[in-house]
Design a protein that fits this description.
single chain; binds alpha-D-glucopyranose; alpha+beta
Amino acid sequence: MRFGHFDDEAREYVITTPHTPYPWINYLGSQDFFSLISHQAGGYSFYRDARMRRLTRYRYNNVPTDVGGRYLYVNDGGDVWTPSYLPVKAELDYFETRHGMGYTRITGERRGVRVETLYFVPNGENAEIQRITVTNTSDAAKTLTLFTFVEFALWNALDDQTNYQRNLSVGEVEVEMDSPYGSAIYHKTEYRERRNHYAVHAVNVRAAGYDTDREAFTGEFNGLYDPQVPLSGVSGNSIAYGWYPMGSLSVPVELAPGESRVITVVLGYLENPDEEKWADDAHQIINKKPAHELLGKFATTEQVDAAFADLGASWTELLSRYTVTSTDPKLDRMVNIWNQYQCMVTFNMSRSASYFETGIGRGMGFRDSTQDVLGFVHLVPERARERILDIAATQFPDGSAYHQYQPLTKRGNLEVGSGFNDDPLWLIAAVAAYLKETGDWSILDEQVAFDNDEALADTLFEHLTRSFQHTVTNRGPHGLPLIGRADWNDCLNLNCFSTTPGESFQTTENQGGGVAESVFIGTQFVLYGADYAAIAERHGLPDVAAAAREEIAAMKATVEDSGWDGKWFRRAYDFYGTPIGTDEDTEGKIFIEPQGVAVMAGIGVQSTDPTTPEFAASKAATALDSVGEMLGCEHGLSLVYPGYTTYRLNMGEITTYPPGYKENGGIFCHNNPWVIIGETVLGRGDRAFDYYKRITPAYREDISEVHKLEPYVYAQMIAGKQAARMGEAKNSFLTGTAAWTFVAASQYLLGVRPDYDGLVIDPQIGPEVPEFAVTRVVRGATYEITVHNSGRPGARARLTVDGNSIEGRLVPYAAPGATVRVDCTV
Ligand code: GLC
Ligand code: GLC
């Protein structure tokens, strides 16, 4: 069942009913000011850091879910409703939410009044703008009163939810009914002391009244669904002294039949230098100059429309670097629009704020953010460069890493621990992707701190060396890499042995002398070690490259030997040296992670032509066949099978989840692309594309009632085949799935992939997509690639470049400004 449809022309998903199976959200903002907004106008706003600078309040865990947002109440002759359906829930004659690139447009109509609100954060501004168009669709005159609504959070989102003994006494506001551009409410809690920032909520017309005290607005025992002020039709002109400061302005509107009126609402974040905090020090009146400047920029509809057009133009530019036109509209819309959009959201948010992440708990993950780079490096290469250097600066001198760092301070954060032994190798992955995309070799010579200590700074290349060496020097009894606290699978805690309720599996004291080993890190080392060697070579260090290649060859042999279980690669060896992910076990026989990455790294690959006899006998093909058989179901590939039914002390958090959920046999979408890419390596594009479609939201749109979450973005997890609610997704938007599916689709299925010295064209998508064209802008040149695809297993591309056929599949990079035409036959 569907709850809307895609509008590809407009780059929107159109939700046609408020009754989706879950709030379906979008993000506004791309620099410093961000908002989350659901299709019912729920959500909240923050400046830079969702924990430390929360502007508006949102209650996770609320009953019902998703009440809390920016709302507009309409009082139409006593009939009170909200065009976003929530919170009043009055039936609407028409409802539509369009989520687009950095904006959302919600339209509701009831009894001859249509209200369309466009929400967006303009480029370069610290504000959420609402352009509200009210239209009288009836044939009688209408006299309405509109009431805006936001509830302020007291800045620190954690404190805001926990420290009521203080917070209920600190709230302060100012009201400015005659602001130069309409009427405004200022939230200035804690401004009198150490803060130099405040928020403004304003309308661009003179309001009839205001409210800043939440209880006065709602009435003592009423909720946001039946608030007294909108019901009465008259603002209370209340001033908040502590308790719950909020902002509401009332605007009377008279409309002749067919007439429309446009009103702008602004929610802004402003700072003043310390010496200019006050307009009137004695009365503690804040200096509103920066707010007036902001409001002056959005005083007229023309200004708002121009800012909105500018936002659209910047997205058009961003999304022009990779576009495909194929016979499959679902593929096109995911690759061209939504997957790239989601990659930008992960760039902005990492894993901090979503409808599943409260914006309080998680900083930037070393592993998460380095992998995210793979998905957005082509969109914002300069910002990717900065991100890489920020992350590298948190690395420890021995090559290991803080597992997370704080976005505001950019410093490593020990609260979340270190010693996740896959972390360092992801840095090589990110730098390799950056170099391939940009050719900017100067990044390797950047001086970068270790542990944020400039005295320890060395080149970025040295950071890569320490990452590589960290695996070389941390190996266990089988010669495989030590796992440490965990590897990519945060929940595989083999040295942990936790018996204390509530203790974090990731940070608790590990059992001393832990020798648990990870086959996965072994495969990861072979994959990214090859990049390290290639980079060293091009960096003028052939001896370093040669020595690295010896280490890689040795690890490859170790994985093929100690890492092989007979029909697939093992996952690990535990604290006692017992294999994990083996047919000998009763549960947890096969894990997905090492299978895909091994094949990506070329481990066990004897042939890449499925029609040859040596192919079937190869470890690579055998392993991926086992993946399909044991881990596959219609909703994707599970992480492990069978999921564990009992808690295993020697394995940790993975065995805490019921089978079929999360790391314990959920379809953890992040690593499905590793298998997809592995299948393309083996020349089985048909399987690769099949796996891609199973997890890709546009292909799941028809089963939205099962999938439950947004049909336009990937979710971290889909409940696996042992789960009662198999196919139900959780944790949408902020997941490494975004980057990895984009890599899989753009670089391997469609096969257009930047390498160090040229663009590789190597499509492997099977017979379902017989013709397609890709436009790729890389290093300033444009490549127009036309593909005629037989989809035959094992078939590989033959290329004509500007009319001349070439050997191999590498198109050398052209000069900036050039247009290169590539004709590709597979
Ligand atoms: C979460 C984490 C990621 C980890 C994955 C598997 O998505 O953010 O770092 O790799 O879970 O445990
Ligand atoms: C929990 C989650 C896991 C995540 C980890 C680290 O264990 O289940 O997915 O990676 O926390 O935050």
